[in-house]
Amino acid sequence: MASSGAPFSVPARRDTRQRRLVYEAVARTDSHPTAEWVFERVRRSMPRVSLGTVYRNLQLLVAAGRLKTWTRGRTTRYDADVEPHDHFVCRSCGLLLDIGRASGTISSERRLRSRGYWIETRVLDFIGLCRNCRSRLKDGR
Amino acid sequence: MASSGAPFSVPARRDTRQRRLVYEAVARTDSHPTAEWVFERVRRSMPRVSLGTVYRNLQLLVAAGRLKTWTRGRTTRYDADVEPHDHFVCRSCGLLLDIGRASGTISSERRLRSRGYWIETRVLDFIGLCRNCRSRLKDGR
DNA sequence: CGAAAATTGGTAATAGGTTTCATTCCTGAT
DNA sequence: ATCAGGAATGAAACCTATTACCAATTTTCG
Q1: pTM, 2 dp
Q2: Which of A108, A113, B33, B95 is the most exposed place for a label (fewest CB within 10 A)?
Q3: For chain B, where are the E strands, in sequence order?
Q4: In the predicted model, is pLDDT for residue B54 greater than 60?
């Protein structure tokens, strides 16, 4: 699994305030924010920061193994928890909940491996309704 | 399971040549094509078709339950197999392989349910290298 | 057939993200 | 502490995938 040790090809990393703020914005929430959200958050302590800088740093932090992305449809969200884990997604409010990666191998994984496929990671998302949305939608909306 | 029977909110569907061609383009391949690919394909038998029409029809066919989308990063791909199934994705060549949905429940699913979450579907993708890319990359590229 | 409504092609507009470039900022060596 | 050189930044232009708009065509159905 890609660690944070910088490989050769990666350009030297400098320690800038905007980079630190971008990382912290993601790390200090469990909401798996979007780039836009991070931008607004960083702006609070650094009003002249540019959106491009936020995107560049998110990208760099992902390449450095300090952040992970999660993407569905047109939205990309960022996560400072880089350990492998699965998700529950509420299709109504967009809640993205981390769930531990419990059992080891899924049967189909074993089958793929035996057929010669090399598996590096998996993405497992459960999609449905969170408790709030479930009860909210049960009544008259 | 969402069938092709049109619900109330969906506007009446007419049977147009372009709609048929869009569906067939997706149904006659197992490559999970992109909208652009479908456009090029439909164009062969209908050179004046517009990209917008292709997008609209893909959207309509998805809403009607006749197609499914699969999305990762910035690419959306379409699939005429609407039964639930999982995928293997080659991170090198982009191969998207259908794999049957084998065993029933994954342990974390049971746990989520018991905590009050309502699960409607799941997305399970294994990501790695297909046989070709694996052996190709093993040598000197 | 003929009218009403869905659909289309062509094109403009968006959303989300990336690139460019002149300027500013870090860092490691002095 | 200073300084040179490469990174990183802000601002704005640019891209790509997708959607919206609208006048002109098709379908459908009585």
Answers
A1: 0.88
A2: A113
A3: 68-72, 75-79, 86-90, 96-99, 118-129
A4: yes
